[in-house]
Amino acid sequence: MEKERYLNRLIDVIHVLRKSETDLARKHLQAYESNHTVNLRKMFQLYKFIKINEIRDYDKLKKRISPDSTDDSFNKLIRRTIERVQESLIVYVNIRRKGSYSDIFRVKFFLRKQLMQAQILMGRGLSVRSLGLYTSILRNAKKFELYDVVLEALYYKQLIQTNSVGSKYFEDIEREIEYYE
Predict the structure, then answer these.
(1) Close Cβ partners of 79 (under 8 Å, ≥ 6 residues apart)
(2) What string of DSSP letters covers 10-23?
(3) How many CB atoms lie under 10 A from the CB of residue 166?
(4) Buried b vs exposed e over 37-71: b needs ≥16 C-beta within 10 Å?
(5) pLDDT at 37 over 60
(6) Which of 106, 102, 84 is nearest to 26 (CA)?
(7) Distance CA 179, CA 55 (A)
(8) For residue 82, what pLDDT is reported?
């Protein structure tokens, strides 16, 4: 049973996908295929055997997809497939699909995504660009009363401005942080 633990997780994830999500998960698994990515083809085969052929037996799947691998290797393949299928759930197309998620969920998702983008830009030395993103994030987060996002953006904005223009804006942002805490 232990060896089937990850397989059961993958089966659960695959079977809760909506039709449109299923198509996108399939495309997502195929998007990275090439002649040099045998494991990615195996991930797609695993997905296909579970979704289309409805094979749920660990040993049968292992025999069909990766007969020479150990249980540990096959479980790694299953875990990577789970990650890739779950990753497909947060692709822009799935999040924007009407009726899938509430408006507030979508807004919060995209603001969180922008927070990560701004952090990456900041880490790569594009402070001005990340500062602009934080300003935009703050405007939208306040509009939708997403105060956890407001605070996170304020902390980063304070960090950038303190490093770039000194303590001039530190006190103003500090007061705003105290207000939202």
Answers:
(1) 6
(2) HHHHHHT--HHHHH
(3) 9
(4) eeebbbbbbbbebbbeeebeebeebbeebbeeeee
(5) no
(6) 84
(7) 56
(8) 93
Buried b (16+ CB within 10 A) or exposed e, 23-32: ebbbebbeee
CA dist., res. 161 & res. 155, Å (int): 10
Q: What is the pTM of this model?
A: 0.74
2 burial (CB, 10 Å; 0-12 / 13-18 / 19+) is exposed
pLDDT-based confidence at residue 52 (cuts at 50, 70, 90): confident
- Angstrom distance (rounded) from CA 51 to CA 15: 8
Neighbours of 129 (CB within 10 A): 14
> The tokens of 15 are what?
């079977």
Supply φ then ψ for residue 112, to 5 degrees: -65, -40
* CA atoms of 147 and 127, how far apart (whole Å): 23
- 3-state helix, strand, coil split of the chain in percent (to 5) is 80, 0, 20
Q: What is the largest CA-CA distance in the chain?
A: 66
Secondary structure of 20-40 as H, E, C letters: HHHHHHHHHHHHCCCCCCHHH
Q: What's at 120, amino acid-wise? A: I
CA 20 to chain centre: 18
